[in-house]
Every structure is written in C-alpha cells, then in structure tokens.
# Entry
Amino acid sequence: MNPQMLVDSASTVPLPAPWWFVEFFKVLGFTLHLAPMHLWFAGLLVAMMLRAGGGLHARTFSRRFAKQMPVLVAFGVNFGIVPLLFLQLAYYQFFYPATILMAWFWIAIVAILIPAYYGVYLYAFGLRDDDPAGPSAFRRWIGWGSAVMFIVIGFLFVNGLSLTSSVDAWPAVWKDHQVAGAATGTGLAAFYVPMVWPRWLMMFGLALETTAAWIVLDAAWFARRETDDYRRWAGRFAFGLAVVGAAWFAAAGSWYVFGTWPGPVRETMFAWPAMILTAITALSPGLPVVLLAMLTQRGFSRTAATIVAATQFGVLAINAVSRQVVQNLEIGKFTDLAGQTADIQWSPLILFLVIFALGAVVILWMVAQVVKAARST
Ligand code: HEM
# Structure
C-alpha cells in the first residue's frame, strides 16, 4: 500500500495564520512545555530515589521538589496546549491519522495523567518539614506510582509524535490492527518505528539535565531558609546529575541519529547549512555541565545558578528547533508544509497573542510572589 493513501486529504482549509507564525509558536510552546515536563518526567523519579536512599540534604531537596510538583505539573500541562494547537493546525493530516492508528494508547494518556496528577498532590500533602519520619509508606507508594506514570505518559507521547512523522510505517500498523479496513487503534508505534526507543531515552537524559538546572535554581531563589551547606550540596549533586544526563543524552542521541534517522534526513542534517544546527544540538548539553562545574568550584551564587538555568533553557530551545526541522523533513516527503495556503484570521490571531502575553505576565507575577515569600521566611 502507498502510505500517501493514509495521509488525510479530506480537508484543504487554508492556514489561519502565516506559516512562520505557526512554526514560531509551535517551537516556543514546546520549549516552554519541555522545561516543567522534564521535571516530572525524570525529576520526580530522582526525588523519590533521593528520599529513599539519600542523606539529610538529599531528603530536603526531595521534600522541596515534591511540594513544588503540583504547580510544575499545572504549568507544564498548560504550556503543552500551545504546541498542541499548532500541531493540530498545520500538521493535522499527519497527527490525526497517526493518533487514530494508536488511539487506545493515545487516549490512555488522559486516564494515566489524572491519577498521576492526583498522586503528586497526595504525596506532597503528606510532607511536613518537621517530620523526620517523612511520608507514610502508603504515600510513598503513591509518589513512586506517579513517577512511573509520568514516565509511561512520556513514552506514549514519544510514540504519538514519532508515528506522526513516520508515515512509511503507517500501512504496516494499519494492516496489523484493522477490522474490515477500519483501524482498531491498538497499534503501538514502538513496535513499528525504531526511533521511538532512542528518542524516549534521549528525552530522559535531557530531562535529567533540566532537573539538575532546576536544583540549583531552586536552591538559589526559593530555598532561603535552607542552609549554605544545603546550597553547596545542591551545586555538587546537580553537577553529578548533569554529567549523567549529558552522557545519557549523547549515547541515546547517537543511537537516534546514526541508527534510526531515515537516509535523506541524515544527509540533509549533515550537509551545509543544517550541519551547524546538528552540531550545536549535539554539543549544547555540555555547556550546562561546564557551568555547573564552575559553580561548584567558584562557589554558589544566584547569578551562577540563574546562568545555568538560562543556558539549559537555551539547550531545550535548540533541541526544539532541531526537532522541528527534522519533523518537517520527514513529513515534507509527503506534503509541502511551508507551501500551505494561508487565509489570515486576524481576530483569533490577535486574541491568541493578547492572552499569551497576559498569561506570561501572570506567570511572572506568580514567580515574583514566590521569590518574595521565600525572602520573607
Ligand atoms: C495533557 C497535557 C499535555 C499536553 C497538552 C501535551 C502536549 C504535547 C505536545 C503537543 C507535544 C508535541 C509538541 C510538538 O511536536 O511540537 C508534546 C511532546 C511531549 N510531551 Fe507533552 N503534553 C502533555 C502532558 C505531558 C506529560 C504528562 C508528559 C509526561 C512526561 C509529556 C511528555 C511529553 C514528551 C516526552 C514529549 C516529546 C515527544 C517526542 O516528540 O518525542 N507530556 N506534548
């Protein structure tokens, strides 16, 4: 079967916004989603491990982090809506068929996310600063359960997005999971698209590094009542975690690029000028590691911690740009994405921009309040 037959061709509605606008906000929204998402994807697991087997400072961090978790999930989930809007807008011909082929797994995200989200509330509400025994065994199980559920959700997202851009795999998935031609929605991309595994692992490695950046940012700005000794521990631990994260990213990334990228994508990404982007994407996770090494050597400071966090955010943005270029190359084989006609709908476009700006102001105000509250304790 020609995979092109499975690409949705029923709708030819023009884009309601210019192509550059769609791409810009898709990448920006994804970067904003990535930062908090990484903290529950890998960070929660790290926090649970530190709670189970760490010393005093490790347990202090674990408690602080768990208490922040409900807010971080709220931020990340809401930021996730932004790229979802633009994905549905400009890539619907690919996103919908792919997620229909794996419909039960895709819808399971909602069913898993709800208990995972409740779980972090239940776990966090069981934590008290003055309780050396820590949360009860029941609550600890809930915490572990949430950590595992977030990792599973991450896996399902990687499946969905990998299948969206792997149109060549669709016929096989459809053939194995259909009744009288109707897709049953029971095909999981991981069994058909080899890039799912390294991509999931790569995301996990990068998430460890983001967690490291968060540890120092939190210690610098929100942990005023913790001791200087705690801050020194935070710097050292964050450095170790970032080393592991960067090495993990490098290993999984090499598998992803050299083992699973389709030939034409690899040729383009290794040719001028895209090779610059490829090189920067591969090397950039080393920068936060170097900065964290300097932070541990020269002493902990707010400026140093903020630079580490800003650099990690830059690493995530570069990653999001590369990912978008690769997604466009893979899908570009089947349709001219940038050539889609646009009929600009000004009123929703302006409304989106105004709400986006207002949302950003509200978030900045909320963060400022948290810093103020931390300062006054
Ligand atoms: C219900 C709230 C969520 C929404 C609306 C959402 C939205 C999105 C969107 C739209 C993308 C793809 C962006 C793009 O291709 O431009 C994405 C990617 C991703 N999301 Fe979320 N997300 C949500 C929750 C989560 C949760 C709870 C996790 C768990 C860890 C997660 C993990 C991921 C991962 C790992 C990717 C990258 C997948 C890949 O391309 O390899 N997301 N998310």
Remarks:
- DSSP finds 13 helices and two strands in the chain.
- The CA atoms of residues 215 and 320 lie 22 Å apart.
- The first helix runs from residue 19 to 53.
